[in-house]
């Protein structure tokens, strides 16, 4: 996987909660495949995930969805 330093991934990125490329919370995702990383001194295989269709589009969609979500405190419609 080019462009990503596997040793710099945080826990949520390794666990598939956040994008391995931009660290955004994942709501729609695509697999980047299984990669071997070192976690707590042990080599483990993890499947990494990224925003779908891409990070820029996902961020734009998330911003639009936040503006239209009126049931969460502090968010307006």
Structural topology:
Layout: H1 11-15, E1 29-39, E2 42-51, H2 55-67
Antiparallel strand pairs: 1-2
Please give a quick description of this structure.
The chain is α+β, with helices and mostly antiparallel strands and 77 residues long.
Descriptive notes:
This protein is of the alpha+beta class and 77 residues long. The chain has one domain (9-67). Helices cover 23% and strands 27% of the residues. The protein contains two helices and two strands. It has helices spanning 11-15, 55-67, and strands at residues 29-39, 42-51. The protein has a two-stranded antiparallel ribbon. Strand 1 (29-39) and strand 2 form a beta hairpin. The radius of gyration is 15 Å and the shape is elongated. The mean pLDDT is 83.
Task: Name some characteristics of this structure.
77 residues, 2 strands, elongated, alpha+beta, single chain
């Amino acid at each position: 996987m080019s462009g990503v330093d596997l040793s710099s991934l945080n826990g949520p990125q390794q666990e598939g909660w956040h994008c391995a490329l931009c660290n955004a919370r994942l709501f729609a995702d695509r697999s980047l495949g299984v990669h071997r990383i070192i976690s707590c001194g042990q080599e483990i295989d993890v499947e990494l995930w990224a925003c779908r269709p891409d990070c820029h589009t996902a961020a734009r969609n998330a911003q639009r969805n936040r503006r239209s979500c009126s049931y969460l405190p502090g968010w307006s419609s």
